[in-house]
Design brief:
- This protein is an alpha/beta fold.
- The chain has one domain (2-138): 3-Layer(aba) Sandwich (Rossmann fold), CATH 3.40.50.300.
- Helix content is 21%, strand content 35%.
- Helix 1 crosses helix 2.
């Protein structure tokens, strides 16, 4: 089942809460979208909606960042700089605690190593201040 959510900066927290209602362990959130679409901004709001109150930064250079939220650990993973399957294998995504939640930006870098179950989010720019997030679960 697909769900479309239209939001802007004023309503991004509500969009994040909707995503949080779908997040759970063993179901990575694969977040697709072009550069500048707002993937990291949405992720920051998702982490905040999970009860994390400190600063959330983009893991573009660290690749993986865990956040200890009131709902459990959430891994924010940014694969933008990964351009080699061996680099991705070395991350050990399959070895992360399956009880943890994951948000993976740039999941297209995973190639054929996609998860068998996932929540897919596609973020599209509608206008300068409007985005559309399409959610689809594969369970």
């Amino acid at each position: 089942m697909m769900t479309d959510i239209i939001f802007n900066l004023d309503s991004i927290a509500d969009a994040a809460k909707h995503v949080v209602s779908k997040l759970r362990p063993k179901l990575p959130f694969l977040l697709y979208g072009e550069m500048g679409a707002g993937k990291t901004t949405l992720t920051k709001h998702i982490v905040a909606a999970l009860g994390y109150q400190e600063e959330v930064t983009s893991p573009t250079f660290t690749i993986m960042q865990p956040y200890l939220t009131s709902a459990g650990t959430l891994w924010h993973i940014d694969l933008y700089r990964m351009d080699d399957e061996h680099q991705i294998e070395e991350l050990g995504l399959d070895e992360l605690n399956i009880q943890d939640m994951m948000i993976i930006e740039w999941p297209e870098r995973l190639g054929d190593k996609i998860f068998s179950k996932y929540l897919k989010g596609t973020l599209l720019v509608q206008s300068d201040d409007s985005r559309k997030l399409t959610l689809e679960a594969k369970e």
